[in-house]
Specification:
- The protein is an alpha+beta fold.
- About 45% of the residues lie in helices and about 15% in strands.
- It has six helices and five strands, in the order ααββββααβαα.
- Strands 1-2-5-3-4 form a five-stranded mixed beta sheet.
Length: about 190
């Protein structure tokens, strides 16, 4: 009796396996009118995966990369070309324009992160805001221009956070308030 039960279980397993493969084959077999839809569905599933964007070098007629950087109310226009590392801001040496060492460090951050020190000449024009905002705008512009000149640097600069525009700006003053949020003094008595 034991052999018959084992045989019947084996037969049962074979039958269920055959039934499963038959239902899968039926589910995959196209019905009339759906023959054209099946390849389209396969193509749709393949195209659902986003293709990695391809970044190309963007240079002007003089072989320079141009980018605009922004921070607070400052806007910097930055041109980068191969050179020996000279940085000019509004026609002046950047160390005289940004006298504080902290601001000079801010400008050098993307260049040091990309390991491109003394390889590019940078010319900037910056306006608006104060010195801190202008230094941040120059840093943003230099980072973007580096990615336009060498698209392979995008990953390094993006990871360092240099390509993100710092959107923090001064909050506007509201009517009925002394400043943006400060209220006028409430009556003491």
């Amino acid at each position: 009796m034991g052999d018959k039960e084992i045989k019947s279980l084996e037969e049962l397993g074979k039958a269920t396996a055959a039934a499963e493969t038959a239902t899968k084959a039926d589910a995959q077999a196209p019905v009339e009118g759906e023959a054209e839809a099946a390849p389209a569905e396969e193509a749709a599933t393949k195209s659902d995966e986003p293709a990695a964007p391809v970044y190309v070098q963007k240079l002007d007629a003089q072989g320079r990369a141009y980018a605009t950087g922004k921070r607070k109310n400052a806007i910097a226009r930055v041109w980068i070309k191969p050179g020996n590392g000279k940085i000019t801001v509004n026609g002046r040496e950047f160390k005289t324009y940004f006298a504080r060492p902290v601001l000079q460090l801010v400008i050098h951050q993307p260049i040091l992160a990309a390991e491109r020190k003394d390889q590019y000449d940078i010319v900037c024009t910056v306006k608006g805001g104060g010195l801190s905002g202008q230094a941040g705008a120059v840093r943003h512009g230099v980072s973007k221009a580096l990615t336009y000149f060498e698209p392979d640097l995008r990953g390094v600069l993006k990871k360092g956070g240099f390509l993100t525009r710092d959107s923090r700006v001064v909050e506007r003053k509201k009517y009925g308030k002394a400043k943006a949020r400060k209220s006028f003094q409430f009556s003491k008595r």
